[in-house]
Amino acid sequence: MGDTMNKRKIILDVDTGTDDAIALMAAILSDAFEIVGVTTVAGNLPLPQTTANTLRVVSLLAPHIPVIRGCAQPLVRDLDPRRKFCDNEETVVDETGHRIAFHVEEFASLPPATLQPSGQNAVCWLVETIKNSPEKITLILVGPQTNFATALRADESIVTNIEQIVIMGGGFDERNSSSSAEFNFFMDPEAAQIVLNCGADITLIPLDATHHAVLSMEDVQEMRSWNTVVGNFVADITEERIKAYNTFQPLFKPDSASMHDALCVLYLLNPAVITKSELFRVDVVTGGGVCDGQSIIDARPTAKKRKNCLVCLRTDDELFSRMLLDLLRRANF
Ligand code: RIB
Ligand code: CA
Fold first, then answer.
1. Is the Cβ atom of 168 under 6 angstroms away from ligand 1?
2. What is the value of pTM for the model shown?
3. pLDDT of the residue at 6
């Protein structure tokens, strides 16, 4: 990895899952960032699995980067049994009996991790690392925002040493986890509301943008042709995701799958990948009910509250897939 002198310092907070893994690979392979650390949180899978999956990816591509285990539960949502989890968790199998899902339990096709997670919890690590950094840090939050919300509760002054926060979360015309909410916000609505109101420079990348950040079956064939560890791994998980999208939520392009989290990384590499964005006031519904975790834009001209985030609404899908494949192709082993 080249010298880190003038690279943007970033921390990725992930619930590795398949699209988080691709975002991690893109960030590492871009060689454009000084990746200070990767913090893990429960979300797509329980914390042990999201941490194990993250360790496999980081061990493979950048074993010098610390992986720090975070929160295993959301802030408060699980205290109320009425606030049930996703309503699209039914198990669906294909004609061969193979379970169709967006995420695989473990990344068995990657070599076993050679790294262990650091001994500290991610919340304490985030406070110390952000507070003591000589340069401002950019956060890329692509899971439920429990870790960073808790860090803010522990010491809200850390926000003064944050360059920018890029969040994959929310959905305005698009949802996935309930009739009203996107998964990362749905899994910890209170955390999302705390982070959106922390006062930092926030770019929000919701499903409205990420549902056009897709890889297709043509991309799967291209990646398989490389015959590399990364190419075969991403081809496999993309094919699984395409099956899941075709089954649960067909997208604008037939036989394609969203790579939600990778769009946050590519946006920092080339903001032109986002073709429409606007500064809005966004809040998150908390406390349960049918709209639990819903992201709400206050677009009234008379809105009094501060416009707290730049909301990305449209994606250049061709630029996205071209950039992502160019990055993944760099892992030529
Ligand atoms: O709604 C999509 C988001 O939820 C992505 O970050 C995915 O990895 C899951 O965390
Ligand atoms: Ca994620």
1. yes
2. 0.97
3. 87
